[in-house]
Design goal:
Strand content: 15-25%
Distance between the termini: 38 Å
Number of domains: 2
Radius of gyration: 18 Å
Order of helices and strands: EHHEEEEEEEHHHEHHEEHHH
Low-confidence stretches: 1-16, 248-275
CATH superfamily of the largest domain: Jelly Rolls
Largest sheet: 4 strands, antiparallel
Number of helices: 10
CATH topology of the largest domain: Jelly Rolls
Shape: globular
Structural class: alpha+beta
Helix content: 40-55%
CATH architecture of the largest domain: Sandwich
Oligomer: single chain
Mean pLDDT: 85
Strand order of the largest sheet: 1-2-8-4
CATH class of the largest domain: Mainly Beta
Number of strands: 11
Length: about 280
C-alpha cells in the first residue's frame, strides 16, 4: 500500500474527549476509561491495525477518517467501511482477544484516544452504558458493511466514488479533501486510470471543481446528485440509530450535558433531510 509504519506516523498528545461514542457516556461511566486514555495523532496512510494483528489497543477517533481495507491475494485492496469520530476501532475486542480480519489505514489525518484492550474489556464488563454504545456502534458498522457490499455489486464507479467522497466530507470540515487518486483507487478497488477517468466525469458534472496536488475540491450538492442512493439511505439509518440510541442517561440532579459533537451530527442530519 505504500503506507507508513504505525510508529512513525503517530504522535502522542494529552488526552481529551471528542468522540461521539464517548460523548454519549454519563460522567461516571466515562470515568472508567479516561484515566487510561492516551491521545495520539495519525497521518494519512498510517496503518493502525494490520490484517492478522491482535485487536489491541482500542482507538476512539476525535477527527480524521480511517478506512477498513480488505487485502486480496492478488495484491488488490478494497474498502469495506469508513470510520471517524462516530466510531471506535478495535471495539470488538470486548469479545475477547482476537485478530483483525482487515487492515485499518488512515485516509485523512486526525487524532484519537487509545486504551488497551484489557482495560476496555474491564470497563465494558462494569458499565451498561459502555456496553450500549459498543452494541449501537456494532450495528452501525454492520449496516455500513451491508450497504457497501450491495453498492459495490450493483452501482457504477462514478456513483460509488461520489459516495466515498461524501463520506470523507462528513468527517472533514472543509470542501477540499486531502485525498489522492491512489487512496481513492484503494477505497474503490479499481485501477488509478479508472479513478482519473471517473474524476473527469465528476468535474464535467460540476461535482468536483478542482482535483490536483493531493486535494479534491467538492461541490457537495452536485456530488449528492451523482452519488448512488446508498449514501443517503445508509447515512439516514445510521444518523437515526445514533440519535435515538446514544442519548446518555443523566442523574436526576445533574445539569443537562449536550455534546457538541452529537449536536453537530444531528444538525447535519437535519440539513440533509431538508434537502
Amino acid at each position: 500500500m505504500g503506507a507508513r509504519s504505525q510508529e512513525s506516523a503517530m504522535t502522542v498528545h494529552r488526552t481529551g474527549v471528542g468522540n461521539r461514542l464517548l460523548a454519549a457516556l454519563p460522567p461516571a461511566d466515562l470515568g472508567l476509561l479516561t484515566p487510561y486514555f492516551q491521545k495520539v495523532s495519525f497521518e494519512p496512510d498510517a496503518i493502525l491495525v494490520r490484517s492478522g494483528d491482535e485487536l489491541d489497543p482500542v482507538y476512539f477517533p476525535h477527527s480524521g477518517a480511517i478506512a477498513f481495507m480488505i487485502d486480496m491475494p492478488d495484491g488488490q485492496t478494497v474498502a469495506t467501511t469508513l470510520m471517524g469520530r462516530e466510531g471506535a476501532l478495535a471495539s470488538f475486542s470486548v469479545l475477547g482477544p482476537s485478530l483483525s480480519s482487515v487492515t485499518a489505514i488512515a485516509r485523512i489525518a486526525g487524532t484519537a484516544s487509545l486504551i488497551s484492550a484489557a482495560k476496555f474489556r474491564a470497563a465494558f464488563a462494569q458499565s451498561a452504558a459502555i456496553r450500549n454504545v459498543v452494541q449501537v456502534h456494532a450495528r452501525a458498522v454492520l449496516l455500513q458493511l451491508q450497504h457497501v457490499a450491495a453498492c459495490n455489486a450493483l452501482h457504477r464507479v462514478d456513483g460509488r466514488m461520489a459516495r466515498w467522497l461524501l463520506q470523507l466530507h462528513d468527517r472533514v470540515p472543509d470542501d477540499r479533501l486531502p485525498v489522492t487518486h491512489e487512496a481513492l483507487a484503494q477505497l474503490l478497488g479499481v485501477r488509478r486510470t479508472t479513478v482519473t477517468l471517473t474524476m473527469s466525469k465528476l468535474r464535467d458534472a460540476g461535482a468536483v471543481p478542482s482535483d490536483r496536488r493531493g486535494f479534491v475540491e467538492i461541490h457537495r450538492a452536485r456530488l449528492e446528485k451523482v452519488a448512488c442512493d446508498c449514501y443517503a439511505l445508509m447515512q439516514r439509518k445510521i444518523d437515526q440509530m445514533y440519535c435515538q440510541e446514544l442519548a446518555a442517561p443523566q442523574p436526576v440532579d445533574a445539569p443537562s450535558r449536550e455534546s457538541a459533537i452529537v449536536a453537530g451530527d444531528e444538525s447535519r442530519a437535519a440539513s440533509r433531510a431538508g434537502k
